[in-house]
Design a protein that fits this description.
The protein is mainly alpha-helical. 78% of the residues lie in helices and 5% in strands. It folds into 2 domains: 2-73, Orthogonal Bundle (Arc Repressor Mutant, subunit A), CATH 1.10.10; 78-214, GntR ligand-binding domain-like (Four Helix Bundle (Hemerythrin (Met), subunit A)). The chain is built from 10 helices and 3 strands. Strands 1-3-2 form a 3-stranded antiparallel sheet. Helix 1 (2-24) packs across helix 3, helix 6 packs antiparallel against helix 8 and helix 6 packs parallel to helix 9. The longest helix is centred in the middle third of the chain and has 25 residues, at 78-102. The model has no long low-confidence stretch (mean pLDDT 91).
């Protein structure tokens, strides 16, 4: 019985991550209608773990399960994208300000440098999917180093939606990755120097990102 329960828990997690991956890279595009039967065939598993995964994804806003229409893949409304980026701007400029007040440790500098070097290599290959993850890792590192766990949790909760937005945007113009990387390099350089201008630079970066995502 215990083994069956463990297997069921594992299957519902697998179903959750696989369906979410299809939504994030838009193999399941916004507005698409799905049936449980399609997912059973695609994932090659029973209805129970799939139902559990769908409940979790619906709670997170990725889809809607309707008794009449089936499963509908949700899109992010423009207003919600704007709200998310405005929230990010407020929280992440606060994070930067917190770090400027005390500076970065050597280990934190090493971690940010490693992220930027990896990102530069990804940009050279124009790999949109890897870039989106590295991009958000940079912001989460700064948040982690600022030390406010509540802010970290808030930003982490939006992470998958932000990845989805970024992926959609960069698929239209992968060369914009270079602009985002340059912004990160500028922010890091100012932060390492303890220069308060990095607060404004982060604000400019996030607001410019918002504008580029919308137009």
């Amino acid at each position: 019985m215990a083994d069956q329960k463990k297997e069921s828990l594992l299957l519902k997690d697998i179903a959750y991550y696989q369906i979410k991956e299809h939504i994030l890279d838009e193999r399941f595009e916004p507005g698409r209608f799905l049936s449980e039967r399609e997912l059973i065939e695609l994932l090659e598993m029973s209805k129970t773990p799939i139902k559990s995964a769908l409940t979790r994804l619906e709670t997170e806003g990725f889809l809607t399960v309707s008794s009449k229409q089936g499963i509908i893949i949700n899109d992010l409304a423009i207003d919600r994208i704007i709200d998310i980026y405005d929230l990010r701007t407020a929280l992440e400029t606060f994070n930067i300000q917190s770090i400027v007040g005390r500076g970065l440790s050597e280990s934190q500098i090493v971690a940010l440098k490693a992220n930027l070097e990896a990102t530069e290599e990804i940009v050279g290959r124009l790999n949109v999917k890897e870039f989106a993850k590295a991009d958000h890792e940079f912001h989460l590192l700064i948040c982690k180093f600022a030390g406010n766990q509540e802010i970290y949790r808030v930003l982490l909760n939006y992470q998958d939606h932000l990845l989805r937005i970024t992926l959609r945007h960069l698929k239209k113009d992968p060369h914009r990755m270079r602009d985002f990387l340059q912004d990160h390099q500028d922010i890091f350089a100012l932060l390492q120097q303890g220069n308060g201008d990095c607060v404004d630079r982060m604000k400019e970066h996030l607001q410019a990102s918002k504008r580029k995502l919308l137009f």
